[in-house]
Amino acid sequence: MDIQTVLLQMKDTAFNARRIGMAYQILNEMMTDTKCTKFLSLSGALIPAGMRSLLSEVISRGIFDVIVTTGATLTHDLIEALGYPHIRLQKSFSDIDLRKKGKSRILDATIEDQAFEKLENWLRSLLAKANDDGSLKGTISPTILLKELGLAISDQISVLSAAAKRNIPIFCPALTDSMLGLHVALLGQEIDLRIDPCVELREILDISFESKRTGALIVGGGVPKNYTLQAMLVSGRSLSYGVQVTMDRPEHGGLSGASLEEAISWGKVDPQAKIVTVVADATIALPLLLGSLLE
Amino acid sequence: MDIQTVLLQMKDTAFNARRIGMAYQILNEMMTDTKCTKFLSLSGALIPAGMRSLLSEVISRGIFDVIVTTGATLTHDLIEALGYPHIRLQKSFSDIDLRKKGKSRILDATIEDQAFEKLENWLRSLLAKANDDGSLKGTISPTILLKELGLAISDQISVLSAAAKRNIPIFCPALTDSMLGLHVALLGQEIDLRIDPCVELREILDISFESKRTGALIVGGGVPKNYTLQAMLVSGRSLSYGVQVTMDRPEHGGLSGASLEEAISWGKVDPQAKIVTVVADATIALPLLLGSLLE
Amino acid sequence: MDIQTVLLQMKDTAFNARRIGMAYQILNEMMTDTKCTKFLSLSGALIPAGMRSLLSEVISRGIFDVIVTTGATLTHDLIEALGYPHIRLQKSFSDIDLRKKGKSRILDATIEDQAFEKLENWLRSLLAKANDDGSLKGTISPTILLKELGLAISDQISVLSAAAKRNIPIFCPALTDSMLGLHVALLGQEIDLRIDPCVELREILDISFESKRTGALIVGGGVPKNYTLQAMLVSGRSLSYGVQVTMDRPEHGGLSGASLEEAISWGKVDPQAKIVTVVADATIALPLLLGSLLE
Amino acid sequence: MDIQTVLLQMKDTAFNARRIGMAYQILNEMMTDTKCTKFLSLSGALIPAGMRSLLSEVISRGIFDVIVTTGATLTHDLIEALGYPHIRLQKSFSDIDLRKKGKSRILDATIEDQAFEKLENWLRSLLAKANDDGSLKGTISPTILLKELGLAISDQISVLSAAAKRNIPIFCPALTDSMLGLHVALLGQEIDLRIDPCVELREILDISFESKRTGALIVGGGVPKNYTLQAMLVSGRSLSYGVQVTMDRPEHGGLSGASLEEAISWGKVDPQAKIVTVVADATIALPLLLGSLLE
C-alpha cells in the first residue's frame, strides 16, 4: 500500500488521521496554485532526526518559494555537509559520559564536538576570503550570507545548498541564537562583516507584498512560525492555505501551539483559508506528507 | 512509495519516526514467534475514528490471541454493526445544537441517539432469547457474553464478530462503564443474567500462565493497558515484546502515560524485552503499523 | 500570601491560571448548593504522589457525596493503611535494579513487594472472617465490600476509612483491574463471595435519579470520568457544575482528554452548566483547590 | 495556608508537585548565592496572561541579573504601558468577528488593533527624537535600544521600565520577530538607526565569561531558552542552578521541551548542578514560585 493511498483514506477517518489527510489535500491544492507564494517554516531538530535528504529534495524540486528557519537547523545542515553526521544513540547512555566523550545529545541523536571546531574553521576561512574579495562585506542581510554558504557547499543533500541553487531565500531571524550565528558574531570583530536583521525583515515583507496569494507549511512553532505569520499580517496577505504540524498545544497560550483559527483574528490567516493543524511528531508526518507530494 | 519501505527507513532516523520504525520491527518479530501469546490492548475511540475495518481485518487474520478493550469500543462496534455509522463533523458546530439534534460528539465524529435505542432493543431481544434457551443464563464471564454478541452479528467488518469467529477472547474489565454494560445491567433486573468480572480475571490469568512467552501491542492507556500488564505481573509471564502507541506522557504519574521501562520494575515487562513507546495519535500510527503487518 | 488570595487573583488572569481561579469559584458555588449531589472522580496515582491526607480530609469533611475511582487508588490506600508508605525515589535509579530489590516504581515513587503480600494476607483474613459471620457473603455490590474494608481500617488518613465513616459510597467499576480486585477474585474460588458490577451501576444511577442537581470534580480521565458522566446521561441529571483537572488533551479523541463542552452534546453536562477544564498536574492543582475549599 | 508552606509541603510529595517544591528550593539557594549571575529566560505570552506586575516586581527587586526574552513579550509590555491592557475574552467568540472588530486573540486574551497604531506613533516619535539628539544613532545593540525604551516609560509596572531602572540588561535575539522590531526596521529606512545582534551576542557572552557561577529560571522554551544556554556553552560557565517551567515535552526532539539533563551533554549545565523541570503552565507556577521568592 503506497502512502498516497493511505493519506487519501485517512482523510475520511477522524482525529489526527483525518487531519493529516486534509493536510495532504490542502498542500496539493497549494502546490498547483501558481499565483500562491509558498512559505516553509521549519523549527525543531529535523536534521539530527534524519529529515535532511527529504527536506533538501523538497527544496530542490522548488515546491516552496521561501524558507524561514532557525539558526540551529542551518548549523545542523552545515556540520552534516562538513562530514559530521548525527549519530543515533543506543538505548542506554549517561549525559555525563557523553560530555566526557565530547558528544552532545539531541534526544536520541548525538553530534561530536569536533563538528563545531570544523564548522568554525570552515566559516573562518570562507568568510575571510569572501570579505577579502568583497562578496561578503559591510552590513548585509542574513539571506545574502546564507546564500553564499549554500553555494560554497558541495554536499548534494544540503538544505542550504538546495536553496541556494534554486535561488530560494532562507530567512533566519534569530541567527545569533546558533553556533553558525555565534561564529559570524565573533568573526565580526576581526573582519568588516555585520548582519542586519532589519534588512532581512524588509525583504520578507517585500516578497509578501508582491504575492497575490500566500500559503504555508508550518513545521513546529517558535520564531519561524511567528515570523512567517507576522509577514502575512504586515503585508496584508493573509494565508489562503495553512498546514501546521506540531506537538504543541494551545492551552497554555504560547504562540507555538496557537491554532490557525486564532491567527484569523490577527489577519494572519484569511477567514476563507483552507487550514488544518496536525498534532503529530514532524518526523512521522513529514515523510508521509512531503514524500507523497514529491511523487 | 509503500508504507513498509517508509517504516523501514524511519527506523534509521530519530525521535518518534525511529520509534515507529522500531515498533514495526518488534511487532514483526513478535508475529513470527509462535511460542508467544499476543495481546492487543485497545483504548480510545478507535472505531468512531474510522479504524474499525483495519482492526477487524487484523483480528480476522489471527495476528493477536487476546483482546483487552473498553466497553465503549464494543458499544461503538455494535452500533456500527446495527447500521449506525459514526459521521464526521464539518468544521463549524455547536454542542448545544448537536444536543438538540440528538447527535453526540466524539471530537470530530458524531453518533445519533437512535443508535443507542436500536442497541437497547437489539440487546433486549437477543439476551432474552439467549436466556430462554439457556445459552446465556445465570452468572457468566463477560467473555462468554461478548462471544455470543459477536456470533449474533452478521456485519463482516465487526471487531466482535471477527474475534468470535476466530475464537479470540475479548476481555472487558469495565464493561458496566459503557452503554453495552448499562443495558446488560438493566436487563439483569428482568432476566436471570449476571456478569462476573472475577471469573473473567481468572480466565486471562490462566491464558497468561499457560503462555511460554507474551507480547503486547498497547494502544492508548486506561484499564485495558493496566489489566493486560497486571496479567503479566500476576502470572509471572513478563512481556518479551511490548509496543505502546499513545499521546499520554509519563510526567504526571498516570498509568496511561507510564513508560514500559517503569513496567520492568513491576515485573510486567522482562528486562530483556524488546520494547518501544511511540508518541503518536493511534489513528495515524495504526494504519501504518497494522497496515504493514497485514501485507 | 495565602492560597485563596492567589486563586482569586488568578481568576482575573488568563490561560490556565484563569481556569484554576474559575475552578475554585465553581467548586465554591457547588459546595454551597445544598440541592446538588457532588461527585468526586479520581484517576491517576494520587496516593503514591502524596495526596492521601488531603483527599481523606476532604472526604471526612463531607464535601462530596459520591466517589468514583480506580482499583489502583484503593489498593494504594490500603497498602499505606497497612504500614507501607510509598517512598520517593532519588534522582538516579535503574528499573532492573528496582526489580531485583523488590521495589515497584510509579514515576518517582516506589512501593515494596512486601506491601502486596501484606495486603493479600490482610484481605484473606478479613474476608474469610466476614464470610463466616455473613457480613460479606454471596453476590454483593463492590460498594458494600469497599465500605467493609473502610470500616476495618484503623488508619485515620485513609480514603476508604474516611468514606466509610461518613457513609459516602465509593464506586469502582473496574475493581478487578487492581491488586485489591485480584485478591477478591482469587479468594472467590475459596469462599462464597462474588462482586456484581451491575448492582453497583444501578446504585449510582439511583443516586443520580434522586438528585435535584449534580456537580462533579473530575481528576484525571479513565473509567471514573466516563462512569460519572454516564450516570448523568442515563439518569437525565446533566451536570450543573463541572471542574476537570487533567493533563490529557482532546486532539486525539480519547475520553480522558475530552472537553466538558463535548459532554454537552451527550446530555452529560447541562448547556447552562458552570464548567471549566484546568490543564495541570493534579498534584499541583488539588492542594491549591481542595486546600482552599477546606479553609 | 500561605503559598510558601504549600510549596515546602509539595517538596515531599511526588510528580510535578514535588518538582515545583524542588524548584522553589533551588531558586531560594540560587538567590542567596551572591557569586552567581542569575538569568531569567521568558517565553510565552506571559503579559497578556496577566503576569506583568509579578514580573516587573521580581525585576525591580533585583532577583535576576540578566533577562532574555522575545520581541512579543516586550511588545506586549509596551502596549500595556501605552494604555492598552489585554482584555480577557468571555467564553463564546468567533475569530472572524474578532477580526471585524479589530481585536486580536491570544488564547483567551485580546488586544485592540489601535494598540499597535499607538505603539507605532510612540516609537516613531521617540526614536526620531533620540536619533536627533544622538542618544540612539548608527548601529547599536538591541540592549541599548531596550534600555532607552524602558527609561522612556512612566508606567510603574512595566518589565522594560523595571529593568532599565535597575540597569538589568534585556537580551532579545529575535527582536525583528515582533511588532516592536518591525517598527524599528521600518524606521531604519528613514533615520540612521540599525540594531546589531552580533554586538548583543558578544555582550551576553562577556557577562557569562565574567561570572563565577551561573543559574537560570527558564520559563517556556524557544529562542530565549536556547540563547541563554548557548551563552553558558560558549563561555564555559555551565549552569550551577537550573529551573525550567514548561508544558513542552522532550519526546519529539525540540529544544523547547528538551530536558536539562540533555543540556549536561552539551556542557550547558554542570553535571553537579541543582536542576529541575516543572511541567506546568507558567501562569500557575510563576505566581507560586516568584510570589514565594518575593516574600
CATH architecture of chain A: 3-Layer(aba) Sandwich
CATH topology of chain A: Deoxyhypusine Synthase
User: Helical residue percent of chain A?
Assistant: 40-55%
Indicate the radius of gyration of chain A in whole angstroms.
Answer: 19 Å
The total domain count of chain A is 1
Strand order of the largest sheet of chain A: 7-2-1-9-10-11
Quaternary form: homotetramer
Q: What would you give as the CATH superfamily of chain A?
A: Deoxyhypusine synthase
Note the main sheet of chain A: 6 strands, parallel
Mean pLDDT of chain A: 97
Count, helices of chain A = 13
Shape of chain A: globular
One letter per element, helices H and strands E, the order of chain A comes to HHEHEHEHEEHEHHEHEHEHEHEH
Number of strands of chain A: 11
> Structural class given helices, strands, pairing of chain A?
alpha/beta
Query: Per DSSP, what share of the residues of chain A sits in E-state strands of 2 or more residues?
Result: 15-25%
Class of chain A, according to the CATH hierarchy? Alpha Beta
How is the secondary structure organized here?
The structure is a homotetramer of 295-residue chains.
Chain A: H1 3-10, H2 15-32, E1 36-42, H3 52-60, E2 66-69, H4 71-81, E3 87-88, H5 95-100, E4 103-106, E5 109-112, H6 113-132, E6 138-140, H7 142-152, H8 159-165, E7 170-171, H9 179-187, E8 193-195, H10 197-209, E9 213-219, H11 222-235, E10 239-246, H12 260-266, E11 269-279, H13 282-294
Parallel strand pairs in A: 1-2, 1-9, 2-7, 6-8, 9-10, 10-11
Antiparallel strand pairs in A: 3-5, 4-5
Helix pairs in contact in A: 1-2, 2-13, 3-8, 3-13, 4-6, 6-9, 7-8, 10-11
